[in-house]
Specification:
2 copies of one chain form a homodimer. By secondary structure, chain A is of the alpha/beta class. Helices cover 43% and strands 14% of the residues of chain A. The longest helix of chain A has 20 residues. The interface between A and B is large, with 52 and 52 residues.
Chain lengths: 327, 327
Amino acid sequence: MIRRDLCTLACILWSALATQASDLLPSWNDSSSKRAILSFVAKVTDKSGGSFVPTSQRIAVFDNDGTLWPENPIPFQISFTIEEIKRQLPQHPEWNSDKDIQAALSGDFPPLLRDHFRGLLHIIFAAGSGMTTEEFAASVRRWFASAKHPRFNKAYDGLAYQPMQEVLDYLRANGFKNYIVSGGGLDFMRVFSERVYGVVPEQVVGSHTAVVYELRDGAPVLVKTMNRPFIDDGARKPEAIQQFIGRRPIAAFGNSDGDKAMLEYTTIGNPLPSLGLLVHHTDAEREYAYDAKPQSSGKLITALVEAPQRGWVVTDMKKDWRLIFSE
Amino acid sequence: MIRRDLCTLACILWSALATQASDLLPSWNDSSSKRAILSFVAKVTDKSGGSFVPTSQRIAVFDNDGTLWPENPIPFQISFTIEEIKRQLPQHPEWNSDKDIQAALSGDFPPLLRDHFRGLLHIIFAAGSGMTTEEFAASVRRWFASAKHPRFNKAYDGLAYQPMQEVLDYLRANGFKNYIVSGGGLDFMRVFSERVYGVVPEQVVGSHTAVVYELRDGAPVLVKTMNRPFIDDGARKPEAIQQFIGRRPIAAFGNSDGDKAMLEYTTIGNPLPSLGLLVHHTDAEREYAYDAKPQSSGKLITALVEAPQRGWVVTDMKKDWRLIFSE
């Protein structure tokens, strides 16, 4: 065990040194945001300093929609869900009297986003329910392979923010374990999280419902249901972090008031050094500009007001990011 | 990233070679059980063979009570819970009319174990409810520091089975990620899992209830409740594996019918090579002997009957283990 740990430590040090030789976070302009990230990582990885954090405690949590990729004109999972609902509609006559599903089909999204996205999650859970987790994953993969974002005309999974990809890589190279903690569907995100973000399925936390285990024709399957819905937003985020991870993170990245509790939990009174960062959508030209009045999800009011007193970094997409998407 | 991966790979190879130089699983007698474990690991780590499994997919799941340490005369968490109930009794007059709590206080355990341990989990959840996760962890630590097992007269956390410790180490040295997937309390097990088994808190899955996030005097806390109970036993085990891990394991270790679904999910129709193992308690002299009629938890009937047709390894503690506890 000791030999293995020493070897792993040597890898981390080597990696860190190799990284320092090149430009760090190249898609970030030289700004207070970039400096805050670099100085936080330097601090917690410096064994000789008083702020060193052992690797096992370097947990970073990232919201997904609006933090790692866009959530406009509607969150990507809603686009997928609407396609799924259309595909399954003939098998579900009861959906004709489901007002959330009807709202989604007619493109009337605001009512779906109220009360922590309750209507939205209802249609997401409904569209996944009754199928096995493998059937659902196959549907998600099919959709990603063909659907295009209406504005950027690219595959949805090609729209991860390049500066945030660099943060994920940089933290990982410095011994952090990155988790996604998102209001998005757990089973939806796990299909692409490793490929797109380098985040393995077991490090994804999200909204979910119960699955039911059964032997179907002698083979084990897990069937998605609509029971025990858990909507991973607001105060539910630190609660899910406790249940799924069981450790307090030392870095949290979000973009909306739905991430406020997660940033509080990460930064307020944490005995370890911590970093909280909010991505502020300020770039209508290259992406979108919104905070108090988002087009879909991503309302950002109180977290933005509290950021200075909490010491949270506010990243101005327009000023701080040299580019938004990979070229 | 590639440099880091190569380096990590070199560590794993080095570790594996170093391990092979010494005796593998030294507390196991040379038996079909030991050979099954060694040949499974050799197979999935052999890059040149057709059964190679990439490290990211080497997930192993372990039941705790009866598989990694004893569950007699009563599961260790019940001993802790009874002490907690006594300590908190003055603050809970309503417990005087709680029949599960009264049964526990009078030492009448059989009714608590029925229906997937419903009564047992009720008292466990009740004794933890209302306190913060940090207060609960402090109680658990206090108990482990002073309580002694009535038969072995050792601290409870000194009673991990040495042969299973070696399996945990051996799998880890071969690139496996070990998870505990147990009916035991999630917050209880996380207090000792890293220290005792080398399993970090985020790789522990267990029975739990909802926690509630709040800012208490300005500081974030998570308060344990009795809401949304989840009892991680039987079919709930593969369901919890899907929710918490999101990958199908390739190795599963258990000792009771409560582990049967987890072993099925791991081994039946798995596209990857897999191993299922049942620890059979056959050693009344050095530990305990039971299966169909356990003294407390750990009933083993149908899984034992199905083991041959499923290809599950049945480990005979008396014959297969050279020693039970570390010396």
